[in-house]
Amino acid sequence: MSKRPLILVTNDDGYTASGIRNLIDAAKKYGDVIVVAPDKPQSGMGHAITINNTLRLQEIEVNDVYREYACSGTPVDCVKLAIANILKRKPDLILSGINHGSNSSISVIYSGTMSAAVEGAIEGIPSVGFSLCDYSINANFSACLPHVEKVIKHVLENGLENGTCLNVNFPKYKGEPYKGIKICRQAKAVWIEKFDERHDPNGRPYYWLTGYLQNPDKENDTDEFALSDYYVSVVPTQYDLTAYQAIQKLKPLE
Asked: Domain coordinates of the chain in residue numbers?
């Protein structure tokens, strides 16, 4: 390459999170890094954008290796603002994460981490979302990094199909290296949700979302299967939500 690739890094856990600090260190080896990340946790925001409030941007650090900004908005806001107002040219790669917690299966729909990568795909930019299946504040990201770098290198060298991004999930670290990488499909699982009713000091009710993932999809080609077998799962993900198989059945409506 005649010049180093330009890499935009973001996340949904906020710019101080351990996951993004590890991702920045990995990305710096492969290009010039610009960080635009939320100034506070934005988990579960999906593809939300800010339209009824102001967006603020604070410069955090500028040095010879990378520039970093904290944004008051969502992960998608971060990507949009970076492309429109911060970057002098379109980035060669967008990296989101490393998320504290899984974004496999149906969780991709709700994930701010993955929505940032999907926004990159909409813009025609190769994009990858990384997530570690460990919600602990002390989660160990070290085992992820060799595979993060392998994915970064592959995407920079080979690109991605237009309109797609990658959803990469790592099993919770068990003290030994991961078995490898599996290219998978998204498991057909769903969240079984419950709203716990609680009461504030004034006796007024409020609700706290709880639940668990129910996975009836037991095939061995899914992300959930790969993760359970201690492999890194990689799912090609697209933003086109058209149910093409239903088009012909709906033709009588015309």
From this structure: 6-186+220-253
Per the structure block, which two tokens stand in for 207?
């609700």
Tens-place pLDDT, residues 89-134 = 999 999 999 999 999 999 999 999 999 999 999 999 999 999 999 9
Q: What is the pLDDT of residues 140-180, one digit of tens each?
A: 999 999 999 999 999 999 999 999 999 999 999 999 999 99
Q: Is the pTM of this model over 0.90?
A: yes
Q: Tell me which H or E stretch contains 79.
A: helix 75-81
Contact between 33 and 64 under an 8 Å Cβ cutoff? The reply is no
Computed on alpha carbons and rounded to an integer, the radius of gyration of the chain in Å comes to 19
Architecture of domain 6-186+220-253: 3-Layer(aba) Sandwich (3.40)
To 5 degrees, how large is the angle CA 55–CA 61–CA 67?
Answer: 80
